[in-house]
Amino acid sequence: MKRKLLYVAFLREDSDAVGFIKKVYAQCKAMNNLGRHTYLLLSRKDRVVCYDTLNGQEMMQETFYSPKAVFVETPAWKRKTASYFRMKEYLQAAELLSDTLGVQEVYIRRIKPVTPQLSVWLRKCRRRDRKTYYEIPDYPVEIPAKKNWTSYSAYVLDQMTFRLGVYPFVQKIVAVSIAPVTDPKVIGIKNGIDLTATPVVQKKQRNRSSAFVLAGVANLAPWHAYDRVIRGLKGCPEYVNPEFHIIGDGPVKEELKQLAADQGVEDRVIFHGTLTGSELNQMMENVDVGVGILGNHRRNFFGDSSLKNREYCARGLPFMISSEDSDFPVHLSFVFRTPADDAEVDIERLFAEYRQYRSRNTPAYIRSYAEQHLSWEQKLKHVFPGEPKEEGDMHEGSA
Per DSSP, what are the bridge partners of residue 243? Predict the structure, then answer.
């Protein structure tokens, strides 16, 4: 008999957070393969939605928010007020649904801020012997500089409310961690990938006149450091013929466009906006090297557990990173590395390495590494160890 689990993710399904939504669906599939019957609770602008993920993504329930909780774009004060009420009503729905379904386990993706309502519900779960997991998707949490009083105060408050209102009442903290974990209550894991939702590329042989195509997929932020690639395009030898395709939107998109114009390389930097599904798959067929996060040092991170690294690998594409990612040891020929600083990327050197290892770095070879090491089943089996599978369940790594 599968144990019933409610996955609580206060993410807006109808927002631009496409990568996060893909991640929680992939985790649900893996949990199902590890002996669970997983229900997923998400948010939308105007309602709470619950899916039964055991057999696909079957919508089983929706609850509409009150008018004061419905998402609004502007003004900012009204958006924050609506968010407060939306979280409150979302948690009410989560508590009611966990009782109605009779779940034995609850898995909560970090909710900020920690409210008294969340703490009270966690206490109730503990009293009812309902096992609770609390995921921190970027552990350890970045500590802002003390001179930035607003951010530092928010950090201290968040840590205090977490320690008082969450930590004592959950059985396990699941930390997607770039650092060693020493707390026995914390299980450190790396991000995984849903291999069935990530097709391998079917690349054709590159001819000499073809462009050397780099691509970065992201909700564009300063720490992606795509400016390093754009600045590297200037002065790159003509024989390399580089192009940089930026897939996604975000707060620094206009800055990147302006930088490309200032550097005189706007014809080599192509902005596609957000692509998903078949459009993204078709775009990736033309890519030679994926671009990972090149600016984690800008937020004092010196490790990496990025989803995009794992997606490039699952697609069978070589990729470039600047921080160490323990899932990709230094001996791997399909992972190219650039220093963790703000210097421009040496695209000519990257091209030379790409050509040197091209015959070895076939899509099938890179994909096989993902199949052996990067599935969500591989990652979450450390969270849900020793759970018996029902006869006929899919084997690990097939989700």
Answer: 213
